[in-house]
């Protein structure tokens, strides 16, 4: 007889164990971020329950940061930490219950397919082997991890460097939104593909500035929404500080030094089962020119990728009502440019559901690759 145990001492591990006496009544609590009250992310390994019916009860799901996130949501599980599949999950408004009969003594559970700090370092290192890529260390996070910027362009192209458009992409301001870095991985793979015609033209027309991970501390700590100092980085853009939000301070300064013609800020949304974008319509500087750029980008993306749509979203912010502490609004206002927040689901894309995996890392990668198409049209 194996003894039941739950481990969280690994990258992004997070859960509180209330009761672990019997496999069919494991009682858990979703943990708060390390220095803030948001609670939603979980990631843990259950040992010793092979071939027994396991019931996981998340007792405080109804008190989490986004309780609506559990309606229609299914927990992901993995034996090999590579393939993550959805398991039977119910939510009664307070408690979330997930059931599985594990086929092995160790099984991992998570809110969404994880993307570890080691994977992040692998992504940077692998991109930096391309001769189109320059890796720049901008500075340190609160806990001393690297803030890294990738600059990507084809210097041997036909467009003079001073005429190239400056395209920014930042991801994982909210560290538990791991789909955002999967998105960047897919984006970079396609952008660095020597044989992809769209990528070739974009590398010529544009200089890309990509920050694949805005919040490495928060991710390692197993946080959903905040960094090691408890800051929600996507509310720090108006007045970032070296103590509370050095991650934003460093990237914002790089933007001010270099300039921005377009920014894409990549996120995951707990509630809506769709991929969608949020624009800058509530900013004081919003204009018919920006509105036309937004519409053209959305039309081009929806026409070329069935996983993107523009019918289901947050709705429009009223004129002048934008929160300028958000990256998208601050950047649009500061640079007078097109800026989008891109949201992917934690659940699934209800237009093209996949019962086995739901929305996944691989599907996020494919969506990241697909954004080259609207960029091609925008940059023409
Ligand atoms: Zn987010």
**Total domains:** 2
Spans with pLDDT under 50 lasting ≥5 residues? none
- Corresponding CATH architecture of the largest domain: 3-Layer(aba) Sandwich
How big a fraction of the residues is strand? 15-25%
The amount of helix comes to 25-40%
Q: Spell the H/E element sequence.
A: EEEEEEEEEEHEEEHHEHHEEHHEHH
Bound molecules: zinc ion
The CATH topology of the largest domain corresponds to: Aminopeptidase
End-to-end distance: 65 Å
Total helices: the number is: 9
Q: Output mean pLDDT.
A: 98
**Structural class designation:** alpha+beta
| Biggest sheet character | 7 strands, mixed
CATH class of the largest domain: Alpha Beta
CATH homologous superfamily placement of the largest domain: Zn peptidases
Instruction: Please provide the count of β strands.
Output: 17
Your description of this structure?
By secondary structure, this protein is an alpha+beta fold. It folds into two domains: 5-110, Immunoglobulin-like (Sandwich); 117-379, Aminopeptidase (3-Layer(aba) Sandwich). 25% of the residues lie in helices and 23% in strands. The chain has nine helices and 17 strands. It has helices at residues 117-128, 179-191, 197-205, 216-220, 246-258, 288-304, 327-335, 361-370, 372-379; strands spanning 5-7, 16-19, 26-29, 43-47, 54-58, 76-78, 85-86, 88-91, 96-100, 106-110, 133-140, 146-152, 165-171, 206-211, 262-269, 276-278, 338-345. A seven-stranded mixed beta sheet has the order 11-12-14-13-15-17-16, with helices on both faces. Strand 2 and strand 3 (26-29) form a beta hairpin. Helix 2 packs across helix 8 (361-370), helix 3 (197-205) crosses helix 9 (372-379) and helix 6 packs across helix 9. The N and C termini lie far apart (65 Å). 49% of the residues are buried. The mean pLDDT is 98. Zinc ion binds at residues 174, 177, 267.
